[in-house]
Amino acid sequence: MREAILTFLEKNSRIDLQELAVILGTDEATVANEIAKMEQEHIICGYHTLIDWDKTSADKVTALIEVRVTPQRGQGFDSIAERIYNYPEVRSVYLISGAYDLMVILEGKTLKEVSGFVSDKLSTLDSVLSTATHFILKKYKDHGTIFERKTRDERMPVTL
C-alpha cells in the first residue's frame, strides 16, 4: 500500500485523502496513518508546488552545474556535497555517474548572479576541480508535468 500512496502523492500531493482511500480500497484513517508514518520515517520528505515561473513577472534563472571534485578520505563525496547544499541558492545536489561527480541545480535572479556564485563560491572550494554550467532556457516537462501542450489542428486538409 505504501508504494501506491507514494505514487499518487508524487503526482498530486493535494489529493483528497478520502478519494485516495476509495482508490486504494481502504479507509481514510488508514491512509492518513500510513502517510504520517512515512513522514516520520522521512520517506516523505516534503511537499512542493510546481510553478511555471515564465508565466510570472518574477526574475528567475535556473542552472545545472556539473562539478568534478576530489573525494575526501573516509567521507567520499558527502562532505563536499554538504558544503555545497548548505548555500541558500542551491536547490538540489546529486551524486552522478559519468565525467562529473555532482550535479548542482541552483537558482538566481540573473545569469550574472548565477555565474558569480559559480566563480566566487563554488569554484573556490578546495575539493572542486572543475565545473560546467548549463542554463535552462525553457522547460518543456518537469516532474512529469508538461508545461505547454500544443493544440492540434483538428481541421481536415482540403485541396482543390
Automatic annotation (TrEMBL):
Domain Transcription regulator AsnC/Lrp ligand binding positions: 65-138
SUPFAM superfamilies referenced in this protein's UniProt entry, alphabetically: Dimeric alpha+beta barrel, Winged helix' DNA-binding domain
Pfam families in UniProt: AsnC_trans_reg
Protein name listed in UniProt: Lrp/AsnC family transcriptional regulator
Organism: Fusicatenibacter faecihominis
